[in-house]
């Protein structure tokens, strides 16, 4: 075969019938060594006490260099034989990229049935260990020309036995250590963005489902970062203190159930589904409490619990969909993603399927897809609530305004006026009220018809709005009678406002259609309110008396009372 090519062939059997991988010498500048997917052997030590001398005589089964053996393989020995069929010694590196999630790793290097080197790493004390680099254990070794080296690797996992073994030369080892985890960082970044977005929504709405959703997101991103090595890579942290963060795998479905109860309002409207969710929630809470004392044991049934969780939540969602809940169809879309991808992951964790990217990253992919859908549900629900609120506001506005002139009606004026009066009583500000009546309005209706009369009312009302302030309360009391409440205005200022309105109406020419030009005038009464002695209704009655004085004096004029007990003064 040509010099420099990498061969993966079975050459020989060791004393215990071990298959060997053959490596020919590699010339400078040609492809290096990067073994990432090849057959190895494994032996499950159920007693968790066997040493290397005992294990090497056991019967091993075959698997691949990246494998999953489920929860019944807490202590597993892996064996791989490497044969250098070239004429030069090779300096290689054994990588264990999933070392960050186990309790301890032991490596025994054997050549010609003799131990030539050993390495033991306790992950509780590995943050400064020279063999650990960002969650990956790196073991350097020499593969002598014409010799076979056998590696025994003991992996002591907390709960699930996930294992990966790779062999590199120096250049490929550096590349492997420098890269990776970009996809996980992207997942975590997306979820952090959703947490921030949902936090803003909570401050805007104060809905408890936003809190549950945020906690669900935080639990999910913690578990993703922990399980896929981002915590180890970023913080160089391993061991028991970090492994306890796997409780997020239990808190995540807890907050998802609470979110479902809140956003679907199951307690109020769907009692049966609510009790089912409560039962699942109780089971998860018990598991969480147990995990506070023994996280490794609590996680062993986690994959089965996850499967049950998916069945329960999916069944409840189907039930709510059949009962016509408007939001559940969106939840079903996201939850279907979650169920499908987590189904792959459950099979992977139990060691029932071969490892691949979808299987090993199924939980992370499912969480992110569902999280995006839940964010849409929250946003959609906010939109629905805003639409309802807008309709309610519109109904309130219609109930408080005159449909023709769009001014406030009498009922709203009297209620809001008392509030303004109370403010004036507290602040000591002056307060005035103006009563206005369109002169000879009945004659306009009788002469030109009610359509022209309505047009006159609309145009006159627009003058009132134009010459009043935003804080003034302008209302149509009925027919051709209008009232304006002026906060912060005394009698003199009230007179000034009334006179400006009278002049503007007098100067206005209303186009009645078909060349008809209509002119009207108004009579106005003004009264200053004494907040300590009278009500708004009393002040309006005094302004009405001034209005009658204006009419009696010839119309198109302003009259007013100088105080509650004062005398009517015409302009």
From TrEMBL:
**What is the reaction catalyzed?**
2 GTP = 3',3'-c-di-GMP + 2 diphosphate
Domain named GGDEF: residues: 429-563
Its GO CC terms are:
plasma membrane
User: What are its cofactors?
Assistant: Mg(2+)
For the biological process aspect of GO, one term held by this record is: cell adhesion involved in single-species biofilm formation
Q: So what EC number does this one have?
A: 2.7.7.65
Signal peptide location in the record?
Answer: 1-22
Name the keywords, alphabetized: Membrane, Signal, Transmembrane, Transmembrane helix
InterPro entries per record: 7TMR_DISM_rcpt_extracell_dom1, 7TMR_DISM_rcpt_extracell_dom2, Diguanylate_Cyclase, GGDEF_dom, Nucleotide_cyclase, Rev_trsase/Diguanyl_cyclase
Molecular function as annotated in GO:
diguanylate cyclase activity
Annotated transmembrane regions:
184-204, 211-231, 243-264, 276-296, 302-321, 328-349, 361-382
Can you say what this protein is called? Answer: diguanylate cyclase
Q: Tell me the organism.
A: Marinobacter nauticus (strain ATCC 700491 / DSM 11845 / VT8) (Marinobacter aquaeolei)
């Amino acid at each position: 075969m040509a010099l420099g090519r990498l061969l993966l062939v079975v050459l020989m059997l060791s004393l215990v019938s071990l298959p060997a991988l053959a490596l020919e010498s590699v010339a400078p500048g040609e492809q290096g060594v990067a073994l990432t997917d090849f057959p190895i052997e494994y032996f499950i030590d159920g007693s968790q006490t066997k040493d290397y001398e005992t294990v090497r005589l056991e019967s091993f089964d075959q698997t691949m260099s990246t494998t999953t053996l489920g929860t019944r393989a807490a202590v597993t020995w892996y064996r791989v034989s490497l044969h250098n069929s070239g004429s030069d010694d090779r300096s290689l590196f054994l990588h264990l990229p999933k070392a960050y999630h186990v309790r301890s790793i032991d490596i025994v290097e054997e050549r010609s049935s003799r131990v030539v080197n050993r390495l033991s790493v306790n992950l509780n004390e590995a943050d400064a260990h020279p063999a650990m680099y960002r969650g990956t254990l790196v073991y350097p070794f020499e593969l002598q020309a014409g010799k076979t080296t056998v590696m025994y690797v003991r992996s002591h996992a907390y709960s699930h036995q996930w294992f990966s073994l790779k062999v590199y030369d120096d250049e490929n080892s550096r590349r492997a250590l420098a890269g990776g985890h970009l996809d996980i960082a992207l997942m975590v970044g997306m979820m952090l963005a959703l947490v921030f977005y949902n936090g803003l929504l909570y401050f805007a709405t104060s809905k408890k489902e936003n809190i549950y959703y945020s906690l669900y997101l935080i639990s999910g991103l913690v578990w993703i970062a922990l399980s896929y090595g981002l915590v180890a890579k970023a913080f160089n942290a391993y061991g028991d203190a970090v492994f306890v963060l796997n409780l997020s795998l239990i808190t995540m479905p807890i907050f998802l159930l609470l979110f479902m109860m809140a956003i679907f309002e199951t307690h109020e409207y769907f009692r049966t589904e609510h009790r089912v969710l409560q039962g699942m929630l109780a089971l998860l809470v018990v598991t969480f409490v147990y995990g506070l004392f023994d996280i490794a044991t609590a996680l062993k049934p986690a994959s089965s619990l996850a499967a049950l969780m998916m069945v329960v939540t999916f069944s409840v969602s189907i039930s709510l969909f059949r009962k016509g809940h408007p939001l559940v169809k969106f939840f079903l879309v996201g939850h279907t993603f979650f169920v499908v991808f987590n189904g792959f992951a459950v099979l992977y964790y139990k060691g029932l399927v071969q490892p691949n990217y979808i299987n090993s990253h199924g939980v992370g992919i499912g969480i992110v897809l569902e999280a995006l859908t839940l964010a849409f549900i929250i946003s959609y629900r906010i939109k629905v609530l805003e639409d309802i609120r807008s309709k309610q506001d519109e109904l309130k506005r219609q109930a408080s305004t005159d449909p023709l002139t769009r001014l406030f009606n009498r009922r709203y004026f009297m209620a809001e006026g008392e509030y303004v009066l109370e403010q004036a009583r507290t602040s000591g500000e002056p307060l005035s009220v103006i009563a206005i009546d369109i002169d000879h309005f009945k004659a306009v209706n009788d002469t030109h018809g009610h359509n022209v009369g309505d047009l006159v009312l609309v145009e006159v009302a627009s003058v009132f709005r134009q010459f009043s302030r935003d804080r003034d309360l302008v209302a149509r009391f009925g027919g051709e009678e209008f009232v304006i409440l002026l906060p912060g205005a005394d009698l003199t200022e009230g007179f000034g406002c009334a006179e400006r309105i009278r002049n503007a109406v007098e100067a206005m020419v209303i186009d009645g259609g078909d060349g008809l030009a209509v002119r009207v005038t108004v009579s106005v009464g003004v009264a200053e309110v004494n907040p300590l002695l009278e009500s708004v209704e009393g002040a309006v009655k005094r302004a009405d008396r001034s209005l009658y004085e204006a009419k009696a004096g010839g119309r198109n004029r302003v009259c007013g009372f100088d105080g509650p007990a004062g005398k009517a003064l015409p302009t």
